[in-house]
Specification:
By secondary structure, the protein is α/β, with parallel strands linked by helices. The chain folds into two domains: 150 residues, no CATH class; 165 residues, Glycogen Phosphorylase B (Rossmann fold). It contains 18 helices and twelve strands. The radius of gyration is 21 Å and the shape is globular.
Length: 395
Amino acid sequence: MKKEIVLVGLKNKNLGDIAILDTCKFLVQNLYPDAKISIKNIFPNRQTMKEVNNLHPKIDFAIEKVKNYPYITQILNFSKWWLSQKRKTEIYKYYKKILKKNSYVIFAGGGIIKFSREYLWNPVYSITTYCQRKKIPVFFNATGVEGYDDKNFYSQLLKYSLNKPCVKKITTRDDINSLKKYVKNWNKISIAGDSALWARETYNIEDVEKTNIIGIGVIRSNIFNDYGINFSEKQLVNTYINIIKKLEEKGYKWQLFCNGAKSDYEMGKIILTTLGLPIEEKYLAPRPQKTIDLIKKIYSYKATISARLHANIIAVSYDIPTIGLVWNNKLKFFGERIECPERFLVKEQFTNANFVITVLENAILNGYNKGVINSLKSKTQKSLYEFLHTGDIDE
């Protein structure tokens, strides 16, 4: 029987998420050329995602007020979830419509297993619930795992979802220790490389001219504070400016770029305005509208310094030296996976421009251990094959 495979992921203006879907689809197509593959957003549409995020502001307010009382917080969280399921049955209906009994469901990757932001627990619960009822096997591919909390209701709801029999296998690109806290059967979890490490094989960009420019990947001003790091917009702008000035001192050409998000692009404009420079392509690459545009831009650089994880991953795929500015532990985990942890810098390090350029120059000089990267890629490919080859539900 011809396999029908549904790839689930985040489809938004951050083109790194689209790269995950593209590369995962490439891998599946290579394993099963005759399979029927469809790509679906983890939320039915942008409006649904917006409504879920803003569904119960009064309960959110109450939770914040009683956060020091775990029992009350749990009751409020349960109430919010129950109301969400009652009100947001369109999420469940959406997957009921697109999934068939002979489907395989693959979460393509990205930061799916997290409970503190983006309300991803809701579609994870809805999808696994429907798949369990219809005996549709589910695979979480190279998924980001962002923490575990045995006292947080949504974390425990994720745990409940991940342990359903329909979930046949889970690989993570990063926090295997947290994943072990979620999953009871450790035999079905393992480490694999992010699918975007296959960008070189997925995208045809032979027509791109290489340059000696250092690409500087910008990120929205409030992301550090959103993830619990005390770092203001002014401090972030000054950090970028100091790096730019140090690059110029060393004789390097540079260009700002973004992964596609408008808020990231706006940060680039703020930096140039603060420097007294015009908003033009020489200094700020056009905001990419398609993933191939982002891929080509990153490929053209001599090296990159970037805060967005997938700007770093794409660079590694093309053997381009890259330095990561860490606002989320997923960047540190990626550095560890490719055995270059020293290239992923925390605030105390990347605010020292001299240090950043020293690390960059060492990266340019030393390159990567391609054996390590190829091993990660092989694990991703192998785990997808194993799921699609033996993923039928047993119970």
